[in-house]
Amino acid sequence: MERETVNQMQGNRLSEIDLVRAIAIIGVLAVHATSFSTVEMLAYPNSFPVYNFINIFLKFGTPVFIFLSSFVLFLNYYHRPISKDTILIFYKKRWVHIIIPYLVFSTIYYLLVYFTRDAADLPSSFLFDFAYKIGTGTAYSHLYFVFISIQFYLLFPFALWSLQKWPRLLPWIIPLGLLLQWLFFGLDQQIDIPNVGSWAFSYISFYLLGAYWGVRYPAIKQWSAARLQGSMPRLRLLAIAACWFVWLLVGLWHASVWFDLRMHTIVRPLYVYTVLWNMYTLLSALLFLWAAAMILNRYRPDRLWLAKLRELGSLSFGIYLIHPLFLAAYRVVRSGVASETSLHLWYAGGFLLALLASWASVWFAHRYLPALSGLLFGKNELRALRRDAAKSNTAATGT
């Protein structure tokens, strides 16, 4: 029965992934749109807690994307035999859909920063500086995510082979991920690793959690489906409610320690911030995936709001790449003096511009410029989304 579930998943798009991606990209955009507010709104003590909350509580986007990336890879590849052709096709897809867009946008952002710098701040060697930033994921502040994803792709065949050869390792990979990540954090405290957040070991717990969940997801789905046929036991309801309560508690705690730091300069040990962030984002990844599956189980996939969220999720990689361009342009035209009310409107406008303009740009490119969009925004997910929507509507109407 589990093998049948695996085959079904490999042949169909997992709609819950698109919903979780939509949540994650909204979090990313909200955090980036409020980045200036964490300094500017300190002058308004009544408003600052709201902006601090948005900026910290929604900081789950990158870890959730990393979890999903690993989850999808292991879900699709774990039950396949590894061969030379499989690995070559895997890397060809990553080169076309991930690395080329990374190189293109790294170049765009690097040139944007280079030509807007003061002459005194320009590097002595253009080519060396450019190559260094490409090779460290630092051409622009958000590109570290793509850079660490590339590192994960390099590690993936070895991790896949290890789990296929020694399946008894599977229950241990989640604690192994936490151990490796925290050893890396400890090493950074000793030797101050350059660009520490641009290295895969800073997020290895999310990668290995995604690996475990991807391997076990067919069994998890099968188990959940069997229990959804009847009423949900009270004990299970309490367990789920407890998980959401812990998630909320840790998220609020994380936001509060950052509020104390920013507003009152109360500095806690670095591990406090890191532990709270790690706990909160790991729980976010799992609970968002669970919530997305529950939503799709309850609502028809052709509902407008659900279809649009799935579309947003399917375009999230391109939106992630391009949205800082809109935010940068938006901030250039800002007036120098602003009241508190106009600042509220300014931050809200930045978020909406980053969301809607990026969404429209990526959608338009994938819809009308497919050859160009592949180089800029990676895989055209709109086609797969339409095919899946057609299948869902056919199943729903019985035609």
From TrEMBL:
Q: Does the keyword Acyltransferase apply?
A: yes
Tell me where it resides.
Cell membrane
- Supply the Pfam families for this chain: Acyl_transf_3
Give the range the annotation lists for the signal sequence.
Answer: none
Which InterPro entries is this protein grouped with?
Acyl_transf_3_dom
Residue span(s) of domain Acyltransferase: 16-361
Keywords for the protein's UniProt record, in alphabetical order? Acyltransferase, Cell membrane, Membrane, Transferase, Transmembrane, Transmembrane helix
Question: What's an example Gene Ontology biological process for this entry?
Answer: enterobacterial common antigen biosynthetic process
Q: Name one GO molecular function term.
A: O-acetyltransferase activity
Residues spanning the membrane: 20-44, 56-75, 95-115, 142-162, 169-187, 199-215, 235-255, 275-296, 317-333, 345-365
Topology within the bilayer: Multi-pass membrane protein
Its predominant location is membrane
Q: Which GO terms describe its cellular component?
A: plasma membrane
Q: Which family does it belong to?
A: Belongs to the acyltransferase 3 family.
> Under what name is this protein listed?
Acyltransferase
